[in-house]
Amino acid sequence: MSSNLATKLREGTKKAHTMAENVGFVKCFLKGVVEKTSYRKLVSNFYFVYSAMEEEMERHRQHPILSKIYYPELNRKASLEHDLHYYFGNNWREQIAPSPAAQAYVQRIREISNTEPELLIAHSYTRYLGDLSGGQILKNIAQRAMNLSEGEGIAFYEFADISDEKAFKANYRQALDEMPIDDATGDRIVDEANAAFGMNMKLFQELEGNLVKAIGQMLFNSLTRRRTRGSTELATAEN
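Given the sequence above, the corresponding structure tokens read:
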């Protein structure tokens, strides 16, 4: 039996995917503008979201449908803990809390886990395949933009237990296509995937205020340096 779920998800979320990529925070990130305070807040929010998702996937690992995409090697919780230790220090647990958007995201994951656990497929798909697809690019951007030491602060993007990411994604999509679900269930999963993209967008939008302030400060500092340099050059010329 073939549900063609991978194709339905890809086609059914194209618009939401494009919208998510055009959020200001993401556009700045892709252009190499990454501010460390905003980024570490994003990492802390991801910690709560991925922890919830992975706990619920573990809970339903014997589920007739969810078991088909239960891959512990995808789990990000431990790698996020590593990054949080880097950004916040040893007492990172006392310093982080989920933002309103992260709280809503976690609440939705818990809710569907209790009522329609098959919808967790949508969250696994939107998060993990995105991480695998663009992870290496984003890792390199973050490393350069924040001047990170080699291997520090970017564990989130490292999938140590997956040797061939392209082959893994192909197997994952095949597992989606072979799921024993009807069209109505497939449609609900696509709808939930679109909702998941929306929840991700809200996580990014929360950070835009901090990013705008940081960019403004960077521009101010740059202008100040130029003015100072210009004044010095003028004074030198007059002498």
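Confidence is low (pLDDT under 50) at residues 231-239. Try to locate this feature in the token string yourself.
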